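ok here's the first one, seq then struct tokens
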Amino acid sequence: MRREAAMTAGETGTAGEAGEEYRRLALDAPPPGPVRGAVLLLPGGRADGHSRPARFGPTVLRMLPFRSAIRSATAGHAVVTGIVRYRHRGWNGRHEDPLRDTEAALDRLAGRLGPVPVVLVGHSMGGRAALRAAGHPAVTGVVALAPWCPPQDPVPALPDVRTVIVHAERDRVTDPAASAALAARARRAGTPVCRLVLAGGDHAMLRQAGTWHRTTAAVTAGLLGTAPLPPPVAHALTEGPDSPSGLAIALPRRATPRPPRA
């Protein structure tokens, strides 16, 4: 049984309210001159949990290599990166705490930088928050990594928000079939969607970590317009609403180099 099944619990729980001071946005110092775009990284979490996440807990640390890869891919293009700090560890059912924190962070970002395009990059629960926050006026792109995709989540028409899902084919925490179903629903609704599938990966993104990082950085830079999108992704994002093409693009698996023989 997938652990994702436990992530549907807690719909009637009481989230409680933490102070607004806990809705933090850890943002890089903006470069001199106009900012061209921004990337917000959304860490994973739990189905339920009202404790305050550790500032540098495992879910945040997991996103740091992605931030470094994105910085390298967008270097010289005045792109700012930031990490959303949640008030609570969990989604917490109807309270949807990470979604609220992401929306608050986007509002705060707009207040600091003005109307710059924003790409959301979220993992697991953060992927769910990214997909749900995609309708915010600042968001122009989403990269959802191994996202948690409950079938009851709404999928609005977002024709101006290009969305890329990346999932390991044997993820045992969040269901790849669920992200495939969501991608198809989103495309039918009118959202440009691409879905990439990684063989040999895992939910924590530790196996084939370099592929996760390079792919995310290349796609994010492409969505911001600081570099061309990878051709298969660019083509998939132009597919019509009823096309299945581009919703299960296999990412090449790089073999681990063997040490030289003595």
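and now the second one, same deal
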Amino acid sequence: MITGSTAGIGAAFASRLAADGHNLVLVARDEKRLREQAADLHDRHGVEAEVLRADLSEDDGIAAVEARLSDRKHPVDLLVNNAGFGNRGRYLEVPLADELRMMKVHCEAVLRLTTAAAETMRARGRGGVINVASIAAFFPRGTYGASKAWVVQFTQGAAKDLASAGVRLMALCPGFVRTEFHARAGIKPDSVPSWMWLDADKLVTAALKDFARGKALSIPDPRYKAMTGLAKLAPRAAVSVVSSNVGRPPRKR
């Protein structure tokens, strides 16, 4: 199962897993795009792709996905919690309702869906969850970075708790990837250095290799691994200045 499957990293996961012969459950808000994606994956790879329309910023949407994950007659072997978004603007420039909606998708939905999946996986003695976080989890980046830091901490802790049960969990921390995500968040490509952009398909390939190796944390690019290491050594104030400005519009006066 892949949430946020119709674009970006989610679509790359769907394409790669379908190419490997896995049947899929595709989850997103736009049913038309979901059905088009399911038909395309079936035609190209001969796999079955189930469609589940759900808005993970709403309780009903989360509950619908929880119910599907709890179906023991049609178990899900791998859950990719990929759905997410970024808000335009800095802290106090974004309406509180939008901040809370983001926290619901990034934190509450991830917790509830991971729990629903892990419970059935533990009963079977096998399965896995990949929670898509962000390199922003390691840098001061407002509510977005804080929510992704929660995803990393939660996933790593749960991975330890479930290791003996045959259930693997991994937090995936990509950097800037050329997807719809950044356009929706108001991030212009030319505001980010060209060397920082990653390819979604290569990212997914590296992530799945890390998952197969049993890693609980994946930063699937040497550039971002180096950045994370340097951030631990650099003065916190300097790190904060850089991370707060890369990919963002000028600060409002």
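notes on #2: The longest helix spans residues 96-124. The chain has nine helices and nine strands.
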